[in-house]
Specification:
Order of helices and strands: EHEHEHEHEEHEHEEHHEEEEEEEEEEE
Largest sheet: 6 strands, parallel
Distance between the termini: 68 Å
Number of helices: 8
CATH class of the largest domain: Alpha Beta
CATH topology of the largest domain: Rossmann fold
Number of domains: 2
Radius of gyration: 28 Å
CATH superfamily of the largest domain: NAD(P)-binding Rossmann-like Domain
Shape: elongated
Strand order of the largest sheet: 2-1-3-4-5-8
Length: 380
């Protein structure tokens, strides 16, 4: 299949093109799609390029358009006008390729942008009937995701960028609810359409099945919570689809010199203990470094349970059930990664038997609470 993408350098275009090339180059084998050529058309392309691409393309993904012009007339020139040119070239080349067009939920509104989008829709529907090209009109909601330009026409992109860069955001109505659609879901739907499995909204229009309706207040609160995560080591609830996608989006707007953030290392003569991640839902992860010959632990828990994973060095983990004399030993090493469960009711310790630092990744089922530590000293 040969696919023509107009607006290839825009937000949707960049995400789609990267996926199409992954499929074409065999890097993404999960898609049931074979691609021979990808024709990229954008503002720096020529009309001769468009004439050439429309000679043999099998599917047109029409993303090009104008949404922030200096003159109202540019809406119609860039949306309806360019769509008409595209159709003319396809007709002249006797090309019956399917056409997917990125329209807008504003197409029914009484503004120049919406009216120009509606003109483009009507033109395509007429062209499809007269020339025999299958037409798929998608009225996308407000899109968000990586590579979306901030301070342009996306509230999510703007707020992600501003919050990540310690700039203020402006909220006119916190109670306003907006429909949001994630870019990966858009790309998936475009591929479904190419494979003749589009999601139909009604008899005329198509869309993305996953739409998230969220208030501006909730959006603001979640983004500031995500920002604070890097200070308190917590992670927002990744089981919620929208929050997980918003978290991924926010990270893509971090300043390039702020991908890193420091952790508090609790250091003494035995080594160090450093908290890495704290979550209410999935517990706490810490990194423990023990010096040669050092033993740590010698305590037990009623309810708190842990998992130890030695990733460097070698040592031994000892257990003894409370009120019992039997000592159980597990020898551990970074050369053979295995998880050791630390059951409740067993006092336990870990000793470095090597000549170098021993590094252990430790997981606890709950973050440490100094008011309820559930930790009781007792020698193994």
């Amino acid at each position: 299949m040969k696919i023509l993408v107009t607006g290839a350098k825009g937000f949707v275009g960049k995400n789609l093109i990267s996926t199409l090339y992954n499929i074409k180059d065999g890097k993404d084998k999960t898609r049931n799609l074979s691609i021979d050529e990808i024709y990229e058309y954008d503002i720096d392309s020529t009309r001769e390029d468009l004439k050439k691409y429309t000679t043999d393309c099998d599917f047109v993904i029409h993303l090009a358009g104008v949404n922030r012009p200096t003159r109202a007339e540019e809406f119609y020139e860039g949306n309806a006008g360019f769509t008409e040119t595209l159709c003319t070239y396809l007709k002249n080349n006797n090309n019956k390729a399917s056409i997917l067009v990125s329209s807008s939920i504003q197409a029914d509104r009484d503004n120049d942008y919406g009216k120009s989008k509606k003109e483009g829709e009507d033109l395509l529907l007429k062209f499809g009937k007269e020339n025999g090209n299958p037409i798929y009109i998608y009225r996308f909601a407000n899109l968000f995701g990586k590579w979306c330009r901030p301070n342009y026409n996306s509230v999510v992109a703007t707020w992600c960028y501003n919050i990540a860069h310690d700039l203020p955001i402006h909220v006119n109505d916190r109670n306003a609810v907006i429909p949001l659609c994630y870019i990966d879901d858009v790309v998936d739907e475009i591929l479904n359409c190419i494979n003749k499995r589009p999601f139909i909204i009604d008899g005329t229009y198509y869309g993305v099945e996953k739409i998230y309706n969220i208030s501006l207040q909730k959006l603001e609160e979640t983004l500031y919570q995500i920002k604070e995560n890097r200070n308190n080591l917590s992670i927002v609830d990744q089981s919620d689809e929208f929050t997980r996608k918003l978290y991924a989006t926010y990270l893509s707007y971090l300043p390039e010199d702020q991908f890193n953030y420091p952790l508090k290392m609790n250091i003494d003569n035995r080594g160090s203990f450093t908290e890495f991640i704290r979550t209410k839902e999935h517990g706490q992860i810490s990194i423990n470094i023990s010096k040669p010959g050092i033993t740590k632990g010698n305590h037990w828990h009623h309810t708190k349970n842990e998992k130890f994973l030695v990733v460097s060095g070698k040592g031994v983990i000892r257990f003894r059930k409370i009120n019992d004399d039997k000592v159980i030993k597990y020898f551990v090493s970074g050369e053979k990664l295995e998880v050791i469960d630390i059951p409740t009711g067993y006092t336990h310790n870990i000793e470095n038997l090597g000549d170098t630092d021993m590094v252990t990744v430790m997981w606890a089922n709950e973050p440490f609470d100094p008011n309820k530590p559930d930790t009781y000293f007792e020698e193994v």
